Amino acid sequence: MKKSICITGVPYSYGSGGARDRDWNNENAPNALRNVGLLNVLSGRKVLDKGNLEIGNAEAVPLGESYRLAQVLNAIKELYKHTLEVHEGGNFPLTIGGDHSLTIGSALATQQKFQKIGLISIDRHSDMWRTGIHNNQPQIGCTNYLKAITNLKPTAILSPLTNCPVDCISPSNAVVIGANDDYDLNNKMCASDRDKVFTDNDIAKHGIEDIVKEAIKRATDGTNGVYLSFDIDALNSEIAPGANFPGGPLTLAQAQQIVQMIMRNCNVVGADVVEVKPNKDEYGVTSHSAVKIIESLFER
What we know:
It is a single chain. The strands form 3 sheets. This protein has an 8-stranded parallel β-sheet with strand order 2-1-5-12-11-6-9-10, with helices on both faces. Strands 3-4 form a two-stranded antiparallel sheet. Strands 7-8 form a two-stranded antiparallel ribbon. The longest helix has 20 residues, at 69-88. The protein has a single domain (5-297), classed as Ureohydrolase domain (Arginase, Chain A, 3-Layer(aba) Sandwich), CATH 3.40.800. It contains 11 helices and 12 strands. 36% of the residues lie in helices and 18% in strands. Residues 18-22 and 61-66 have low confidence and may be disordered. It is α/β, with parallel strands linked by helices. The protein is globular.
C-alpha cells in the first residue's frame, strides 16, 4: 500500500448511551489501543497518526434512555469532514472508536469520495434496528447505524454540512458477518434486512470461506470500493471482555481470517475498529485483540 494509513481516534460514546452511563464509555479506547502497541504493529508501513478528533459540544437532546441526538449528529459531521480530508490527501482512513454510530460519518465520507461503495461489517449485531424520526431528525445510534446509511437520506444526517447530495450506501451492497444476538435479529430489525446478515450458524453450516466469498460478492457488485467496519464485540468474551456487548461468536483466528480474506480480495478504501471499552477490561485484553485485528488489516 503506497498511500499512508491515516489513524484517527474518536473518543466518543454518545451513540451507545455514554452520556448517561460511564459503564458504556468508549472514550479512552483510542489511546488504549495506542498504549498497547498500535503503532508498533504497523511499523514498516507509511502511517500518519492524526491523534484524536476534537468533537465540539452540542446541546443534548435526549431520545429515550440511550441516545443524545445532537452530540451524535455533531460527531458524525465532524468525522465526515475529517475523513473527506484524509481521502483528498490520498490516504487510507483508519478510524478507531468510539461507538459504532461513528461509522456513519466515515463511511458516508468514503461514499462521497468513491461515489458507490459496499460496506462489510463484522459484528455480533445487525445494527439495523428500525430507524425513527424525532423532531424531524433521524434517531441514530450504534444499534441502527447501518440501517441509517442504507435507508435514510444522508442529507438528513449531514445537512447543512454538504451542499451536494450524498447518496446512501445501497442496501444490496451492505453485509454483516458474525451476528449471534437473537433478540436483535428477531425483534428489532425488519424482516427484509435479514438476508444481509450472516450469523454464527451460517458460518458453522457453510464455513468461513464460503460466507466471506458471498459477502465480498455482494459488497463489490457494481461498487468502486469497500468500507470495512469491525465491532470488537464480534469476538468471544474471553478475548474481548471489554466490549459494549461482549459475547460474540468469533475466535481471534477466525476474525483474522475474515479480515485478511476481505483485504486480499476487495478494494478496501476505508476501515474502522470500534466499541472497545477499556474501563471494563483491567488487563487490556480487548485492546490487544483490537490491535491484532488492525495488524491483520494491513498484513503484507
